[in-house]
Amino acid sequence: MRDGDFELVTLRSGARAVRHCGHGEVMHPAGGPWIEANRLYVEQSQLAARLTESPSRTVCIFDIGLGAATNAVAALTCAQQLGGSIDLHSFEIDLSPLRLALRDPEGFPFLVPFHDAAQALIQHGEWSGPGGRWRLHHGDLLTCLPHAPRNAELIFFDPFSPEHNPQLWTPDTFARVRSCCRSDGDGGHLFTYSAATPMRVSLLLGGFFVGAGISTGNKRETTVGATKQSALVAPLGARWLARWQRSSARAPIGESSLLPEREAEVLGHPQFQFQADTQPD
Question: Which of 45, 66, 106, 280 is most buried, with most CB under 10 Å away?
Fold first, then answer.
């Protein structure tokens, strides 16, 4: 099946996924959408613990790159199972992947319990029910962010890769995302599948503290960003900084070369001023 620029494909694992017909990038290629959504975003963010530690508190989640709604539904499923509540904000410019997935219930069985919720999201822009409230910000991310709340606790950052969607991985974009994070508690946490050096530089320049995330599929590690360094389990340290200084890919996404002032920003980032390096080579 095909809808606009997207089509459904079957991965080697047998899982169904959505692929962009133009550049060929597949959404959640590492073991299948449901496995990656839960491991990389829901489990790594410790959503279950956040919901159970303070049952009366609503956890605000930004789902950047709704796609086929796999990450969103994984979060809603977790909240429903635990009787918790999330305030879920999904950002997406093209709803074709979600429409495709909803037309293939056998390939996307995890969407079946949320079929009506997803249809309400498409038609009305929001849904409320067991697990919390789900709202859609339909359009360009940078246009939508000013209208989003300023208390994001978890950010599932899952747009197409920097190669095919570079404008969403720049320091400016990350700075705007960071401005929407909560300032109390342990701040905001961003999780993404990319571990590329230019992307991590963009995160640092966007005001985040940056650490290594879990492995998933064929990726040895992913990336975690946080507004407070104390929230990182494995912060990048002196050895990462030394490798970056030797790298041929030192500039952030969206900039062809590393300007002297950008280099000074990275070297002067608070993350590298006082922390002891504990990262392996």
Answer: 66
Contact 174, 208 (CB under 8 A): yes
For the segment 107-129, what is each residue's pLDDT rounded down to a tens digit?
A: 999 999 999 999 999 999 999 99
Amino acid at 185: G
pLDDT in tens, 240-267: 999 999 999 999 999 999 999 999 999 9
Phi/psi for 101 (5° steps) reads -60, -40
Where in the chain are the domains? 32-274
State whether residue 219 is helix, strand or coil.
strand
List all residues 6 or more positions away from 59 whose beta carbon is below 8 Å from its beta carbon: 47, 50, 51, 79, 84, 85, 86, 87, 153, 154
Element (H, E) at 238: helix 238-246
Q: Is CATH 3.40.50.150 the classification given to domain 32-274? A: yes
